[in-house]
Structure formats: structure tokens, C-alpha cells
Amino acid sequence: MKSSMFKSLSLGLLTTALMTVSVTHAATQQEENINVTPTQKITQQELAAIYVLSEVCPSLVKDDAQFEKGYSKLAQEYLPQEKDAVSALSKLSKEKKFKSILAEARTDAKKAGDAKNKEICQELTTYSN
Questions:
Q1: Which InterPro entries does the UniProt entry name for this protein (predicted)?
Q2: Which structural domain, as residue segments, surrounds residue 60?
């Protein structure tokens, strides 16, 4: 439950801060839980937003090792078919066709500001727990 709650919070913050993350909401009746999960088909914008966290967060968090664990877990959840999702994202970031999407995600992160980005980054430090 903690993991799904954090996933919900984390994805909500990503959406607000980076404005490129799309999330599928599976809304149910009032007495049932609301489940927020990544879409079946992950968008390039979502992957760019996640990658940008690897650029923004190291200077905003105190515990780099914990951030790396949380970031790795998040990346693996979005790219479960990859053996090493972090490396796959890094490789994707260098592809020509991905450059404009990545630039947009970087611009959105700048617009969000350090306070909002720090909040997201701090959440990722506890995501692996």
C-alpha cells in the first residue's frame, strides 16, 4: 500500500512539475480505491520527464545513494522490459529523435523551479524503501 500511495503521489508531482507526464487514472466507485498507474504504452514525454530527474535531482538531494535507488526503481517500473532501465534511459537521451522531447522536459523542469523539483527528488529518495 505504501508503494502504491507513493507511486500516486510521485506521479502526481511529476505531472504538476514537469507537465509532460501523462497518467491513466482508473477511477472507480466511491467506496473502492482509486488506482493510479502508468499507461500501458509509455510515452516519450514520460520517459523524458523521468530522465530529467536524473539531471536535476543530484544537486537537490542530500542522499545520492537513496535517490539513485528510487530513481532506478521508478525507471524500471516504466521500462520493465529493460534489464537496466537507467542505462536504457541514458541511451535514449542521446538519440536524435528524442532531443526535442527531452528539451521540452528540461524547460518544464526549469519552469517548475527548484522548490517543486526538490520535493519530487526528495520523494524519490524514499521510493526504494
A1: DUF7944 (IPR057704)
A2: 2-125
